[in-house]
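Subject: design request, 150 residues
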């Protein structure tokens, strides 16, 4: 099971970073490269504990849907979402926020298991883990850009 970790400093208060990270509209802006959009469940506003959202996106040239649920929230320090239905066997995505000086360190931990057993493990080593690392980094950098531009 690969675990991807990434952290980034954002020059903004923790509450702003936390709210932007759980905003459906901002999520769609930060994932434009994959044409991600909310098509079910909570499709606007700020995600709360217990909320479910169905995302549609294009990955590897294939339109895919993924249902995620917020299973834990500790405002403004942490929220966790899990995959309920989608292409992975499973995932847990932990979003953490720590005040640092005049800004915030945002940390992502993406713990996932690929489908298809040994074939999924091979795909992880060949390309999927690197793809997911880049996806999370790009999304975090775009979120930083949006927040700091505000």
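Subject: RE: design request

Done. Sequence follows.
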């Amino acid at each position: 099971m690969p675990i991807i970790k990434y952290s980034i400093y954002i020059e903004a208060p923790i509450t702003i970073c936390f709210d932007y990270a759980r905003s459906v509209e901002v999520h769609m802006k930060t994932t434009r490269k994959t044409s991600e959009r909310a098509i079910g469940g909570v499709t606007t506003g700020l995600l709360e504990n217990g909320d479910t959202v169905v995302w549609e996106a294009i990955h590897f040239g294939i339109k895919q849907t993924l249902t995620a649920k917020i299973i834990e929230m500790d405002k403004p320090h942490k929220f966790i979402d899990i995959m309920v239905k989608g292409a992975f066997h499973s995932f847990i995505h932990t979003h953490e926020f720590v005040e640092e000086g005049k800004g915030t360190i945002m940390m992502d931990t993406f713990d996932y298991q690929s489908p298809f057993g040994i074939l999924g493990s091979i795909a992880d080593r060949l390309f999927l883990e690197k793809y997911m690392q880049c996806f999370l980094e790009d999304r975090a950098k775009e979120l930083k850009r949006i927040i700091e531009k505000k």
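Strands lie at 3-10, 37-41, 52-59, 62-74, 78-85, 90-100, 103-113.
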